[in-house]
């Protein structure tokens, strides 16, 4: 009788351990599924907001929605170039956004959407590479240009190299020269073409500076994956309208 009870107890214990092990194995997939739903929901919400803004602008015959914000962002980009991005020198410099979008009447802090067809990737885009923004999508480093287009601009867009089961920029090495990246904001969709790829050390700030006369975005992530980010992987992209 004692042996039977012991066997039963062992079987129950093994079953519990097996169930726990299966749950641990499945958890990353569950997180990715949940995160995928969350990010798609945020992207869809942005499209809805953008469509509403365009509709209201047409009804009110406003040629440029949020013109004050756009004008201030253009001046910001110009100042960055003129002052040679002198404040791009520490972690806090690129985490905090220079603009709070809700102060201008926008419903939240999503600046736009970044789309990379080659990677089947579409994520919300935020201003300021804070932990919160990086967890929610991709983020423009402050003290780099805001992606609204214009000569002598370079928006550096950071994304995790996979994090907590969600890919973000995990597959960035699949990108090749000629691949397309688009940025959509409330004023339009900007089309960029991959021009160059570099691997740099984390303190090589010069590599991400604005290049005179060029209209660019630069994708930035850790390299190699799952190594604590000893290096940075950069994908330099140029506006298709300006590509030679």
Q: How would you characterize the overall build of this protein?
A:
The protein has helices at residues 2-59, 67-82, 91-95, 131-136, and strands at residues 110-116, 121-127, 138-140, 153-158, 161-163, 166-168, 180-185, 188-200, 215-223, 231-239. The strands form two sheets. An eight-stranded mixed β-barrel has the order 1-2-3-4-9-10-8-7. Strands 5-6 form a two-stranded antiparallel ribbon. A hairpin with a 4-residue loop joins β1 and β2. It is an alpha+beta fold. 35% of the residues lie in helices and 27% in strands. The chain has a single domain, classed as Beta Barrel (Sortase, Chain: A). Residues 17-26 have low confidence and may be disordered.
Please describe the structure with a list of short key phrases separated by commas or semicolons:
244 residues, alpha+beta, Sortase, Chain: A, eight-stranded mixed barrel, two-stranded antiparallel ribbon, 10 strands
């Amino acid at each position: 009788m004692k042996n039977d009870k012991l066997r039963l107890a062992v079987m129950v214990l093994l079953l519990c351990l097996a169930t726990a092990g299966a749950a641990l194995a499945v958890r990353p997939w569950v997180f990715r599924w949940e995160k995928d739903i969350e990010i798609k929901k945020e992207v869809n919400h942005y499209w809805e907001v953008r469509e509403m803004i365009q509709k209201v602008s047409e009804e009110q015959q406003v040629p440029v929605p949020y013109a004050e914000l756009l004008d201030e962002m253009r001046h910001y980009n110009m100042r960055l170039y003129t002052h040679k991005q002198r404040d791009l020198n520490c972690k806090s410099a690129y985490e905090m956004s220079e603009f709070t979008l809700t102060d201008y009447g926008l419903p939240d802090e999503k600046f736009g959407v970044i789309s990379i067809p080659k990677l089947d990737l579409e994520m919300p885009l935020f201003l300021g590479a804070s932990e919160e923004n990086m967890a929610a999508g991709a983020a423009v480093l402050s003290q780099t240009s805001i992606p609204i287009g214009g000569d002598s601009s370079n928006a550096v867009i950071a994304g995790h190299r996979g994090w907590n089961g969600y890919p973000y920029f995990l597959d960035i090495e699949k990108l090749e020269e000629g691949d397309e990246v688009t940025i959509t904001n409330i004023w339009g969709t900007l089309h960029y073409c991959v021009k160059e790829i570099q691997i740099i050390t984390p303190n090589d700030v010069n590599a991400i500076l604005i290049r005179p006369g060029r209209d660019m975005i630069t994708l930035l992530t850790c390299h190699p994956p799952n190594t604590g980010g000893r290096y940075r992987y950069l994908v330099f992209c140029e506006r298709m309208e300006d590509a030679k």
